[in-house]
């Protein structure tokens, strides 16, 4: 029987391992979030109406992106477990089921596009010219969602193979391409007038399609490849079953946040255009602020899945603790510049729309420094499926996000005070840290539980 680990030495070694790998993942997520933030800045310079239109569409885009991230997380966990079991995975065993699932999701998306998006967005309360622009922007983005999905799946495949550095470099280059293409396709150059708001979507399509091809190339180089005559249908169906079983959970929990965001945007839209614009800025800044969470969570999820396969149950609690400590450390480091430079950051993001300035400044002063609590809970919820605690993850996330997070904005709407909603979010962030500690304490007893069936 494995002896209990020497806590101080092993905790320090594990923390260094997670931090080393997370640095590469944080680089890739940093590039993605910086590109998203710069994209919003370019949109702001198109004018007040395009900024509000993009802000209305942001929660719906966030919803679809989190579905893609949920499928991607399931694939990275499946691949890492396959590597640990010794059999490994061929490219076709994993990518083909992932893409087939993606095609199914895309079919649902196309049905959604066929709905009257104008009526849905119009219910947000914006003026007709605004929600008409928002509809065109969102509809165009949804048509190309399969590209975003393929890019997410291919990068997750590299993370499952522990090719964190390779994945980081590819994503960074893709984001640089996106930043360069954005103004060219939005504003035009020379005799080309540009596409306006939808030019942002076209830039993302081109950059992500190239990135997906490069990721698949590196994945093929580092794994066995099944030829056309050796598709191994049984193995592929088994992989599809495992991935879909896990993806159902990871995608469901991932969608809780954007669903809450859509409801929150609807509620806050009743307060005024400045509040709606603030929600749009928050939708771009929040992922940027939480970069350490994405990076550390991606690495700890892979480590948890490996520890579970190897039955090293004594390390589960230690992995959670190491992840929490790194989230706390890195989130504090990231928060300080946003607090010190709150005014210039807010002005930069709003592109001269000063009506929303007080709200964005308040957000920057109180949320980044406390978001570590939410980040710790995010890490816990995404780590639980890797150790077969999927139902626990769904229950905790549903309570925290759908009930409590949405409730913060409901109180702001009820009292007609957006600043009240921000203060409630501050308290919710701190509560997230408490819940995360509770989850990790229960995770230490993983070896005593029967496996949950999904």
TrEMBL record:
Molecular function per GO: antiporter activity; xenobiotic transmembrane transporter activity
Keyword line: Membrane, Transmembrane, Transmembrane helix, Transport
TM region positions: 21-47, 59-79, 91-117, 137-158, 170-195, 201-220, 246-268, 288-309, 321-340, 360-381, 393-412, 418-439
A family per Pfam: MatE
This protein's GO CC annotations: plasma membrane
Protein's recorded name: MATE family efflux transporter
Origin species: Pseudomonas gessardii
């Amino acid at each position: 029987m494995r002896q209990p680990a020497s806590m101080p030495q092993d905790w320090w070694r594990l923390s260094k391992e997670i931090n080393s790998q997370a640095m590469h993942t944080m680089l890739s997520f940093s590039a993605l979030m910086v590109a998203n933030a710069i994209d919003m800045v370019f949109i702001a310079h198109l004018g007040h109406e395009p900024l509000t239109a993009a802000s209305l569409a942001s929660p719906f885009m966030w919803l679809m992106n989190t579905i893609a991230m949920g499928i991607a997380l399931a694939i990275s966990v499946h691949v890492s477990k396959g590597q640990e079991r010794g059999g490994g995975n061929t490219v076709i065993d994993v990518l083909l089921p992932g893409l087939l699932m993606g095609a199914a999701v895309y079919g649902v998306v196309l049905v959604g596009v066929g709905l009257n998006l104008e009526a849905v967005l119009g219910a947000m309360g914006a003026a007709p010219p605004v929600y008409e622009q928002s509809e065109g922007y969102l509809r165009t983005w949804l048509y190309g969602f399969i590209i975003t999905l393929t890019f997410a799946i291919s990068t997750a495949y590299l993370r499952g193979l522990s090719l964190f550095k390779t994945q980081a470099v590819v994503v960074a280059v893709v984001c640089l391409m996106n930043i360069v293409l954005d103004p060219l396709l939005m504003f035009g150059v020379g005799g080309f007038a540009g596409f306006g708001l939808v030019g942002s979507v076209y830039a993302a399509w081109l950059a992500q399609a190239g990135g997906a091809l490069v990721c698949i190339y590196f994945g093929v180089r580092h794994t066995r490849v099944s030829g056309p005559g050796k598709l191994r249908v049984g193995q592929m169906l088994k992989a599809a079953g495992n991935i879909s079983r896990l993806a159902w959970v990871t995608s469901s929990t991932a969608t809780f946040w954007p669903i809450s965001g859509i409801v929150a945007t609807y509620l806050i839209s009743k307060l005024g255009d400045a509040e709606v614009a603030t929600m749009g800025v928050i939708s771009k800044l929040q992922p940027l602020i939480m970069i350490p969470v994405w990076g550390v969570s991606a690495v700890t999820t892979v480590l948890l899945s490996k520890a579970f396969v190897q039955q090293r149950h004594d390390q589960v609690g230690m992995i959670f603790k190491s992840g929490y400590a790194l989230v706390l450390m890195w989130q504090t480091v990231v928060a300080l510049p946003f607090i010190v430079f709150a005014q210039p950051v807010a002005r930069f993001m709003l592109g001269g729309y000063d009506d929303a300035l007080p709200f964005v400044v308040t957000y920057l002063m109180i949320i980044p420094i406390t978001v570590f609590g939410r980040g710790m809970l995010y890490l816990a919820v995404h780590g639980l499926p890797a150790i077969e605690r999927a139902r626990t993850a769904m229950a905790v996330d549903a309570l925290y996000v759908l009930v409590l997070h949405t409730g913060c904005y409901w109180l702001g709407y009820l009292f007609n005070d957006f600043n009240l909603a921000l203060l409630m979010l501050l308290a919710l962030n701190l509560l997230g840290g408490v819940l995360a500690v509770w989850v990790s304490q229960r995770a230490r007893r993983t070896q005593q539980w029967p496996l949950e069936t999904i």
